[in-house]
Amino acid sequence: MAASVLKIAINSNRNPNGVTPPRRFAYSSGTVKIATFSNNSKRTPLFSCPSSNHYVRTRENMFQPARIAGSDRVSGSDAHTFDVVIVGAGIIGLTIARQFLLESNLSVAVVDAAIPCAGATGAGQGYIWRVHKTPGSEKWELAMRSHQLWEALAKSIQNQGMDPLLALGWKKTGSMLVGRTAEDCSVLRKKVEQLVEAGLGAEFLSCDDLLAEEPALELGEECGAAFMPDDCQLDARRAVAFIEKANRSFAAEGRYAEFYYEPVTSFLRSDSSGGIEAIKTSKNTLHIKKAVVIAAGCWSGSLMHDLIRNAEIKLNLPVKPRKGHLLVLENFKALNLNHGLMEVGYVNHESAVASSTISDSRTGFDASTASISMTATMDMSGRLVLGSSRQLVGFSTEIDESIIARIWERASEFFPILKQVSLGDLSKSREVRVGLRPYMPGGKPAIGPVPGLSKAFLAAGHEGEGLSLALGTAEMIFNMVLENPQNVNPTPFSV
């Protein structure tokens, strides 16, 4: 595969993915970086999954959804009406749409300034590993619920005679958090104890056991790893294609529509209640009966700021774009991995911070500050995926070759065989993925209703955990909108 992130000029009428879009597209000038993906997947089944503890919101009346009949929602008019409108077609937005379509009779529209996988989702590594998670943390319950739902989805696909690998890129890799020193191993032993106490099948691997699992590692005699053999990973692009195809199957009922390449330009609010009645895009007006969900990744903060600029609403949503690079190598025979790996320092992979000295007047961040931490896995096609970097450099998505070189050098410290290969010789067989993670100070996403703006909900700030937290987030938003009991306490994520 040729190197680089694919650039698509969005003022042309080309279809970049080879997929026929079911809705009209309003193209604007400019360029968007996207990741290509396949759309040869099956319909997502409705599945059941055991619930955890319930958190019930007190209310007088529970909303009972009504059957929505087909109407003029996809007609030639520039005005449409939906129960729920979702702004953002990444993994968060699409799974929220899926939740409403499968578990209610509400109609749903998805709006995006680009297309699915144009942002952080398409540039991600695809892992939903748990070995680096912290039991008892504020995100722990949501992470475990999301993982439970992903496992249930993969199982339901299998039960219908389909292959989860083909449908989702679902692959049992196991995950390892790798250390090189006695101090690292002390941390890893405690991590394993925490995970086991939380009910997960984790184990500590001594140096000999680690090298038996991953012979390519050369880390010295003090190395070790926390290991979760049952962990899995996904192919984000394939999972998105699967979910999107399932969502589109509801279009014939008049319950689903997509408005891609249509940036949101404004909210239309009620004069009496102040609630959102509609949103305007560059080409359409979408009237809203029940809810609008802002799930626009790192653009959510600036979008909300622009939309409520003239309203008497105070909203602090300091989500920032956190740039990341991944290096993907095709037909790379020099290194083969049996599991997904990340270095123990990944847990504290937080050193890309806002600079106190403004070196870039446009972004307010120091472009030279970057955090590099080794992650490595093989994807469903056998390609080697190496990461990862974190930078706060504004909305730039340009490939930085110096960052790629640092990722390669860091990986070489764990896999010395890579030192025998020149990175420059791999230019024709590499792909570089660049994405903007939606970073929130404090590390928690914002999930919940927008104070002072009825019908408006936020689901943003998942940073590098969008894929792993997606299904739990979708369930949480769904239950908030319909005032259903919650399976996960939403309080830590309140806006």
Automatic annotation (TrEMBL):
Domain FAD dependent oxidoreductase: 83-477
Keywords, alphabetical: Oxidoreductase
SUPFAM superfamilies xrefs: FAD-linked reductases, C-terminal domain, FAD/NAD(P)-binding domain
One Pfam family named in its UniProt record: DAO
Keyword Oxidoreductase annotated: yes
InterPro entries for this protein: FAD-dep_OxRdtase, FAD/NAD-bd_sf
Purpose of the protein: Required for the assembly of the mitochondrial membrane respiratory chain NADH dehydrogenase (Complex I). Involved in mid-late stages of complex I assembly.
Protein name: FAD-dependent oxidoreductase domain-containing protein 1
